[in-house]
């Protein structure tokens, strides 16, 4: 009611007029005020019934139309299972919490109660306002039941998604992103995308002008009928401390396909992803930066002009520009074309390799049929296909199997006799290796994603 009183005080009620007129006007105004107050009471009573219900069971304080207020940020507890749109004094279902957060203007937070949730969705969860969904308090799986896209982030809105599993999402043809379609800003941390499916972007589709940041997360067994089994990207995509395993694409980019936009990959592993071309990553234009990362056993199955078991670069929508620093490529393959097994630059564009380690990628670690390949002599290849890279045999490089060697992703260790140890360029190697181990050890950086820590044991004399 304070707002009503404040507004009325601004009217010129008491400007100087003849007494009789002032009295009659005052009587009229008092009557009008009473009528307005009554109406306001009725309107507010109606609004109270329609207000969303907060986790405490009290109405969300929302005196004015939602568009006119900066509401208090709310924390909604995701308490109940099932997919109903529901909240009460204990908390909400996930859908109820999302709808309440959407209705409360401004950024809100949704936290999971300490339960195991496996929510089978009947329809897509729409994110139409900034929100953080944090599943770390429970064990949360949001399941598209192989029939619906799990989430949609609207343009201009931000979703921070922490500690959830997005499973079995499926989007219809040309509605990209089986797990999540992002048209805003999506920050994914400590989460898993598993067995989602779409035409493009099985796990996530990142729309034009959108930003997707993936940190400490996994993409496992997601599928795209066309491109981008794990992620289809038309915007800005940053991937850190994350793993792509066993994702597949009918066309290109088993792990990630970038149509237009940029892709930055740091401290991440691509294992056994498959596409007709570019088993790990495809860039059809734009800038790709990969640092301190590992590509193992990715597969390009196509024939003809295809290839690029690990990475395939081509002029699909523009010229791709690629910078790889301290990356390890091993055992990637394109078995149905001659060569072109590791990295394949198939058209105009540029590919720069610094401190990159390539071993046992079919019969060609590198292939270039139209672009510019810049390789420093500090890079190391088990064949002669990678420009100026130093050539060593697979046995001399002697990469260990992909394993948990510390850090948040699996890596390929170097045994103490590996030719890659202390053979890198200190001026370009990052401050740590893929695991987070400080570089350089032993005075000089190692080639590839792994830095060996040598322990000098004391000499024991008898
Ligand atoms: Ca909100
Ligand atoms: Ca081949
Ligand atoms: Ca070293």
Show the helix and strand layout.
Elements: H1 2-9, H2 19-50, E1 75-78, E2 87-88, E3 91-92, H3 94-103, E4 108-112, E5 116-120, E6 125-127, E7 131-134, E8 139-143, E9 151-153, E10 158-162, E11 165-167, E12 180-182, E13 185-189, E14 192-194, E15 197-200, E16 204-206, E17 211-215, E18 218-220, E19 223-227, E20 231-233, E21 236-240, E22 243-245, E23 248-252, E24 256-258, E25 262-266, E26 269-271, E27 274-277, E28 281-283, E29 287-291, E30 294-296, E31 299-300, E32 311-313, E33 321-325, E34 328-330, E35 343-345, E36 350-354, E37 357-359, E38 366-368, E39 372-375, E40 380-381, E41 390-391, H4 394-397, E42 402-403, E43 411-412
Parallel strand pairs: 1-4, 4-7, 5-8, 6-9, 7-10, 8-11, 9-12, 10-13, 11-14, 12-16, 13-17, 14-18, 15-19, 16-20, 17-21, 18-22, 19-23, 20-24, 21-25, 22-26, 23-27, 24-28, 25-29, 26-30, 27-31, 28-32, 29-33, 30-34, 32-35, 33-36, 34-37, 35-38, 36-39, 37-40, 40-41
Antiparallel strand pairs: 2-3, 42-43
This protein binds calcium ion (3 copies).
Residues 101, 104-106, 108, 129 line the site of one calcium ion.
């Amino acid at each position: 009611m304070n707002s009503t009183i404040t507004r009325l005080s601004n009217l010129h009620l008491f400007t100087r007029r003849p007494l009789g007129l002032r009295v009659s006007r005052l009587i009229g105004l008092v009557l009008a005020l009473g009528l307005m107050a009554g109406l306001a009471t009725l309107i507010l009573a109606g609004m109270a019934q329609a207000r969303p219900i907060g986790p405490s069971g009290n109405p969300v304080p929302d005196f004015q139309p939602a568009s006119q207020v900066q509401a208090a940020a709310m924390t909604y507890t995701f308490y109940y299972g099932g997919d109903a749109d529901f909240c009460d004094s204990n908390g909400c279902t996930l859908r109820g919490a999302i709808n309440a957060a959407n209705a409360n203007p401004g950024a809100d937070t949704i936290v999971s109660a300490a339960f195991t949730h496996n929510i089978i969705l009947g329809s897509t969860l729409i994110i139409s306002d900034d929100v953080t969904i944090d599943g770390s308090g429970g064990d949360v799986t949001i399941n598209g039941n192989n029939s619906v896209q799990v989430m949609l982030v609207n343009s201009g809105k931000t979703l921070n998604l922490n500690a959830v599993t997005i499973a079995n999402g499926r989007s219809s043809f040309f509605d990209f992103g089986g797990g999540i379609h992002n048209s805003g800003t999506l920050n994914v941390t400590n989460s898993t995308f598993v067995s989602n499916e779409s035409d493009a972007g099985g796990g996530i589709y990142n729309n034009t002008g959108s930003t997707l940041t993936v940190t400490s997360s996994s993409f496992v067994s997601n599928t795209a009928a066309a491109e981008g089994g794990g992620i289809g990207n038309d915007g800005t995509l940053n991937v850190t401390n994350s793993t792509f395993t066993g994702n597949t694409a009918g066309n290109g980019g088993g792990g990630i396909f970038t149509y237009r936009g940029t892709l930055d990959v740091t401290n991440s592993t691509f294992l056994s992803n498959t596409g007709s071309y570019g088993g790990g990553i495809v860039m059809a234009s734009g800038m790709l930066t990969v640092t301190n990362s590992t590509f193992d056993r990715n597969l390009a199955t196509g024939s003809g002009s295809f290839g690029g078991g690990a990475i395939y670069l081509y002029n699909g929508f523009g010229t791709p520009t690629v910078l790889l620093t301290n990356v390890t490529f091993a055992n990637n393959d394109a078995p149905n074309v001659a060569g072109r097994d590791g990295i394949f630059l198939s058209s105009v564009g540029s590919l720069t390799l610094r401190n990159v380690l390539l071993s046992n990628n079919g019969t060609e670690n590198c292939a270039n049929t139209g672009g510019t390949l810049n390789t420093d002599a500090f890079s190391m290849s088990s064949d002669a296909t990678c420009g100026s890279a130093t050539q060593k045999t697979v046995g001399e490089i002697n990469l260990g199997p992909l394993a948990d060697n510390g850090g948040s992703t699996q890596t390929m260790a170097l045994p103490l006799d590996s030719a890659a140890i202390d053979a890198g360029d200190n001026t370009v190697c990052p401050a740590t290796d893929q695991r987070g181990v400080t570089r350089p050890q032993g005075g000089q950086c190692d080639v590839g994603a792994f830095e060996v820590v040598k322990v000098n044991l004391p000499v024991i004399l008898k």
